[in-house]
Amino acid sequence: MEDKAPWTRSLIARIRQERPVLLVALLIALIALAAGANKWVVLGLLLLMIITALWHTVPAALPKVQLEPVPETIEAPGNRLAEVAATLAALDIPVMVLSGDASVLYQNRAAEKAFGEAAIGAHISARLRSPGILDMVSETIATNAPNQIEHFERLPSERVYIVRSAPVEFDEQQPADERFFVLSFRDISEVRRIDRMRSDFVANASHELRTPLASLRGFIETIQGPAKNDGKAQERFLGIMLDQATRMSRLVDDLLSLSRLELKSHIAPDQKVDLVPLLGHVRDSLAPLANDVGVEIVLHLPLGKAEVLGDRDELVQVFENLMENACKYGQEGKTVDVFLKNAPGEPVEVTVVDKGPGIPAEHVPRLTERFYRVSIEDSRSKKGTGLGLAIVKHILTRHRARLIVKSEVGKGTSFTVRF
Ligand code: ADP
To answer: What mean pLDDT is reported for the chain?
Structure first.
């Protein structure tokens, strides 16, 4: 059907439509022939009836059949730009429409926001000074083929765009002075930032794993060589090796936790979790650690329940991390206080307060970054991985909850989770 000429398709459609009339005409002709009428006269009359039937249906059939709807804009060149512009106005990426001599005929609101307002009809070079973009536009106009380049903007903020120029194809017989070109800007700054974060993360994770691994290898070589017959040294080295292996497995566990959390970050949890027994459970599970570091965890809980929508295991992980940090970095002989607030009409809040050395203000905004530590040595000596608060942040984001950190050097730190 596709490759038949339009007039053939309309004729077929019309014949189908006039089928009853044509059949009646044929029947009358046959009856006339059977009655002994002259065959030439009958044939002539039949032909006349067919032509009349089809002829009369021509103007009426076309709009009804609508085989090839022809949009008005294609006939009227002036409307083409309006048609393109109306579509581009709805896009949230910056787009400009250029004429065949590279003047800007239209720019959408996103382009106005990114590159400022400018007089319509001005040459593209009055708006964009990048030689790369201007060369690309000239080439697209000359060859009528799409092109794209990567473009960096330093001001007002650093941004990276994929800029693409492409001809707008209406039909093949488009006159040269009615050609349009679309220049679009896809902002990939965020994608680049995430790429950089990922590669930093892989580098950091490999580095963190390589350190204990190198230490393990060193001790194995020593036990095989110089300490081959030294039972006492071997025992000591095996103890250190166990510590290093445990550190590696903690790190791998934390990395797996983070990647699992990333996978489900967009799904909000929907269980009802009562924080009162949950905090009691976390306190009990951390009692041995608190004992080791000489700190006491004191819970300040309201009467009754304090329910939030959440994932129980993940919330246990949040409060375990916060209370464990408070014990590890808090001061020996002092208490770690945990307050649960559940006032009517106010958000449920849990605050973990320690009386440790505090965190200097410049570090506070970066604490939830992966592997960020105020002191690497301090964190390592306390069996830290540098991932605890990153995990906390991920879980809280999924729970639509906030983490508020307040710290005063010399006095202590408080971490508040607000649901
Ligand atoms: P780590 O495994 O090193 O404890 P976290 O992500 O849990 O990693 O914490 C990041 C860093 O934040 C820690 O290395 C430490 O420097 C600092 N920090 C976290 N909690 C406290 C706290 N309660 N008091 C002082 N510093 C803290």
So the answer is: 86
Residues paired with 107 in a beta bridge: 96
Name the residue with higher pLDDT: 215 or 116: 215
Beta strands in 139-276 (DSSP E): 147-153, 159-167, 180-187, 271-274
412-419: average pLDDT: 97
Count Cβ atoms below 10 Å from residue 129 Cβ, excluding itself. 8
Residue of 364, 379, 380 to test ligand 1 pocket, by largest number of atoms within 8 Å of CB: 379
Residue 359 in contact with ligand 1 by CB distance below 6 A: yes
* Residue 247 alpha carbon to ligand 1 centre in Å: 16
Rounded to 5 degrees, φ, ψ at 345 are 80, 0
Residue 339's SS3 state is: strand
What spacing in Å lies between the alpha carbon of 293 and ligand 1's midpoint? 15
pTM over 0.70: no
- CB of 392 sitting under 6 A from ligand 1: no
Q: Determine whether the shortest distance from the Cβ of 106 to ligand 1 is under 6 A.
A: no
Q: How far is the CA of 331 from the centre of ligand 1 (A)?
A: 14
Which of the four pLDDT bands, split at 50, 70 and 90, describes residue 9? low
Centroid of ligand 1 to alpha carbon of 374 (angstroms): 7
The pLDDT of residue 76 is above 80: no
Residue 165 pairs with which residues in a beta bridge? 147, 183
- Distance separating alpha carbons of residues 11 and 65, to the nearest angstrom: 11
The CA distance from 153 to 199, in Å, is: 23
CA 320 to each of CA 250, 289, 351: distance values in angstroms, whole numbers, following the listed order: 14, 11, 13
Cβ of 356 less than 6 Å from ligand 1: yes
Region 345-362: mean pLDDT is 96
Average pLDDT over residues 230-251: 94
For the Cβ of 379 lying below 6 angstroms from any atom of ligand 1, the answer is yes
pLDDT score for 53: 72
Contact 274, 231 (CB under 8 A): no
The finding on whether 403 has its CB within 6 A of some atom of ligand 1 is no
DSSP string covering 346-366: S--EEEEEE-SS---GGGGGG
Tell which atom from ligand 1 comes closest to the C-alpha of 390.
6
**Cα–Cα distance measured from residue 320 to residue 316, given in angstroms and rounded to the nearest whole number:** 6
Confidence band of 348 (pLDDT split at 50, 70, 90) = very high
Instruction: Give the pair of three-digit tokens for residue 61.
Output: 């059939």
Confidence of residue 171 (pLDDT cuts 50, 70, 90): low
Q: What is the pLDDT of residue 157?
A: 79
Segment 124-141 mean pLDDT = 93
